Amino acid sequence: MPEHQEENTDQQQISSTGIMYTSSGPVDASVEVNAVNIKGRTALVTGGASGLGEAYVRALVKAGAHVVIADRDEQAGSKLQNELSDSTTFVRCDVLSWNEQLAAFKKAIGVTGSIDIVMANAGIATNDQVFHNDISKDEPEEPDLPVLKVNIIGVVLTAKLAMWYFEKQNAGENKRDRCLILKSSMAGYLDLHGAPQYSCSKFAVRYVKTPILSSAMDTFIAKSGAGYAEAADAAAALLRIVSDDSIQGRALAIMPRDWEGASNGYVDVKQDDFEDSPWMHRAQEYALKPAKYAMTSTDSEGTPLKTVPRQD
Fold this sequence. Notes:
This protein starts with a strand and ends in a 24-residue tail after the last helix. The strands form 3 sheets. Strands 1-8-7-4-5-6 form a 6-stranded mixed beta sheet, with helices on both faces. The protein has helices at about 50-60, 75-85, 100-110, 145-170, 195-200, 215-225, 230-240, 280-290; strands at about 1-5, 15, 20, 40-45, 65-70, 90, 115-120, 180, 250-255, 265-270. Helix 4 links the parallel strand 7 and strand 8. Among the domains are: about 40-135 and about 145-205 and about 235-240, Rossmann fold (3-Layer(aba) Sandwich), CATH 3.40.50.720; about 280-310, no CATH class. Helix content is about 35%, strand content about 10%. By secondary structure, the chain is an alpha/beta fold.
């Protein structure tokens, strides 16, 4: 789900540099990508050394961006950097480490002087222990929760850093449109049996064949007849978002192209608008209003730099 940060418009409620985001309406997936707005920008992709992350890196480089690859896999990351030459910079990064993520962002700023696109892509999938119980034991065992840690905490740290750097840059002379994208999953919208961590973290790319899928899941999807989407279409959806600064607060689903309405391999999910539920739509409108003040930035002592009163 993307959030662009830009200068003041009539639809945005703004603090000194913070923004209350609103949905821009459904994305037309049939529109061809205009990469002119991507050329010369700097992007950071977590988990960018393999799988969908690698596809995102390659697409951004092809569109003319410089990409910082932040990944734990030093071998794959270095290999990709060597292949793509001066268009990429690899930084070893565990997304659960604040200091390592911070170092990756600093590296991006140090290389080009700006950071414009952040793709929070890194995530994992493992056998879920939450509902797997060994009742032969005297006491329940504490479950391991790596998926929640990596796919939620890691993403939150990425988002925090992205918004700080976006605000910092837009508060100075380097004002331009910037974009944060959080890679979620159809598992965040659909019931997925036996994988509460997976669904809760909204990470899984169900129906896109990548190294994150286990052989058992691969077999299950093949037998179900659902088919696979293509990593190239996921990359195309990314470019569609970052090339169009009018897209705000939307979720795009990557689907097999033979599914209805997915001729380009991705569609607008349209599940966050509550069009069929007037009371949920109304509740969402209230939830999006600032409680008392719009989002604010603060100085080093936590004092708001500026507040914007609620507009009812």
